[in-house]
Amino acid sequence: MRDQASGPRVLLKRLRELMQEPLEPQERLDRIVRDIASNMVAEVCSLYVLRADSVLELYATEGLNPNAVHLAQLRLGQGLVGTIAASARPLNLSNAQEHPAFAYLPETGEEIYNSFLGVPVLRAGRTLGVLVVQNKTMRHYRDDEVEALETTAMVIAEMIATGDLARLTRPGLELDLRRPVSFTGLSFNDGVGLGHVVLHEPRIVVTNLFNEDSEEEVRRLETSLGSLRLSIDDMLERRDVAFEGEHRQVLEAYRMFANDRGWVRRLEEAIRNGLTAEAAVEKVQSDMRARMLHMTDPYLRERMSDFDDLANRLLRQLMGRGPEDVAASLPKDAIIVARSMGAAELLDYPRDKMRGLVLEDGAATSHVVIVARAMGIPVAGQMKGAVSMAENGDAIIVDGEEGVIHLRPQPDLEAAYAEKVRFRARRQEVYRELRKKPSTTKDGVQVDLLMNAGLAVDLPQLAEAGAAGIGLFRTELQFMVASTFPRAEAQEKLYRDVLEAARGKPVTFRTIDIGGDKVLPYFKGAIQEENPALGWRAIRLTLDRPGLLRTQIRALLKASGGRELKLMLPMVTELGEIAQAREIIDREVRHLSRFAHHLPTSLKLGAMLEVPSLLFQLDELMKAVDFVSVGSNDLFQFVMAVDRGNTQLANRFDTLSAPFLRVLKQIADAGVRNHTPVTLCGELAGKPISAMALIGLGFRSISMSPASIGPVKAMLTELPLDELEAFFDDNLMAPAQGLPMRALLQAFADDRSIPL
């Protein structure tokens, strides 16, 4: 009895020889289908390739009418071939004509064939075509024959992906792999970027498909699997916060997949059929992804993401590749495409080469988006499926204004966006002209436009944006991008650099705000929480771990020697927390005085108003501190009971709703009443329409990303404040005609030609 694996091995060896011969693409395809038919003792072997117009075109055949090549066509979903392409699943039929999807194409002459085996031609889970064998006799093809045809289809997928078949495509048509595709999601940061795809966790492209020694490849696979399992076990044994809760569940899923015998068995079968270990991983990964992409259950699709990540880890183990290899070979116009990523990972990429960021997940307030905004990078999020459809090097457009991306765009669309970029550049020139002009309304009222910052990379933008100062310096970002707690000396150096870069302009430092969704992998003291946003974070954490706060306060005091120090406490819930923090600050001042350190000329202590409990003690709060800063992101989240990271709720509630604007009005009025300066920092400050609302409510100091200052200032200089205040007198408590406040504000601006 013939060894069932010998057939596929012989076929793969023959294919390898064919791939190396200097043949024209059509001749190579014709010989491939002829060799497949001969090896599988089939009377017919046909290859259909998927075009960008969702039509499957016959590209080569052995056994059917050769005149039908490039003429016979089936729509996606039509006939057996179309069904295979649409479902990404093989069909193995002993009597094909009885199947309800059977469609007869007279030009092919296939009516005399009964048995049918068709498999999708897959690459990275995408269907690029269908490979079919047929026989006259009624028979059910064996599992090893199905496996052999799938393996062969993988080789053909690489031919399609490398562009070998492009010359066979008729003028005006193109293959599906190069099809332009657009995705609509959410705008996370304004701007437009044109460039080329860089996959943040790139699929490893396997070029060595055929093995010389199956047993050696199985041994390589076992060794790499062993290393992979050990690394997962090691991560799971750690007790730090990065691997608790949801992170731990992901790793548990990794461990489950890594030890799944079915997965390993399929890998070994692919190797014994003639593939290298790397090619076997790619084949099984692609098969699995294609099947799961058609599932609607969100949990199963999420598990597919886990499986993808695990398979990529295994490929890197086998090929000795690390993710750091990617950043070294970036194009000069890189647009990073990722499922999700951390703030520190974004900073690994050189800023001068980045033109945009695309995220499948994330939210406008996630930390990677905050960092991208500080760097002036357009960001589009919630782009489900973008990673699977993109290839490294694909042309891509990111429209951060509309929350849209265009992958492999048509030339006319690319030209239109290039003009849009030029228009934006001209508009930026207008904003630059405004830098030196007073930041006043049309009727002469001064409003300070400050910028948010958190890293050294932000500092040059203080002068470029024409900001009046730094209204929020997020000190925790230094902690988030580090692999260990930053030493006191490193903290002091950063704070001193910030103050020097400010050149006398005010800087407000927020004490370390970690916990909740701001995870430090090296912080051993964190706990798992069901509601981390409402839990042990910010001032609550640092008062319980005063060593953290003392070290930071001491660094800030030393860095501010001879200057004013403005210090702000995050997540204050009750006034007792301010008193406790003040006691720690006073103790550090006494300590440094004892050793004759150069101290700040003045120290102003403020509180962030983010927790609704402070709304019921506003006058007491204003008297207890030197200034107040409204953290509008968290305050909105807590007032409206909305998880700001929940994408299902991202557009459900409006930050310009009348109830929330009334809350902000109370705060602004309390500041005036108590002669306490009040600033607002958060997403609200960065959009011209919401900044206009804040100014109308009484805020005279707002802090935003550097890129937002130009558009907000352009609005401000055209704003008749007396008319806007009258508008709020009439509409805040009872909006006209019951219309949403956003619509009323837009109409107010339109009537007065205020640029929003």
UniProtKB/TrEMBL annotation:
Reactions this protein catalyses: L-histidyl-[protein] + phosphoenolpyruvate = N(pros)-phospho-L-histidyl-[protein] + pyruvate
Cofactor dependence: Mg(2+)
Domain of life: Bacteria
InterPro entries, A to Z: GAF, GAF-like_dom_sf, PEP-util_enz_mobile_dom, PEP-utilizing_PTS_enzyme, PEP_util_C, PEP_util_CS, Phosphohistidine_dom_sf, PTS_EI-like
Family: Belongs to the PEP-utilizing enzyme family.
Alphabetical list of NCBIfam families matching this protein: PTS_I_fam
Molecular functions per Gene Ontology: phosphoenolpyruvate-protein phosphotransferase activity
Protein name, per record: phosphoenolpyruvate--protein phosphotransferase
Lineage: Bacteria, Pseudomonadati, Pseudomonadota, Alphaproteobacteria, Hyphomicrobiales
Isomerase in keyword set: no
Subcellular location per the Swiss-Prot or TrEMBL entry: Cytoplasm
Primary subcellular site in the record, as a coarse category: cytoplasm
Domain GAF as annotated: residue spans: 24-170
Keyword Transmembrane: no
Xref: SMART domains: GAF
This enzyme's EC code(s): 2.7.3.9
Keywords per UniProt: Cytoplasm, Kinase, Magnesium, Metal-binding, Phosphotransferase system, Sugar transport, Transferase, Transport
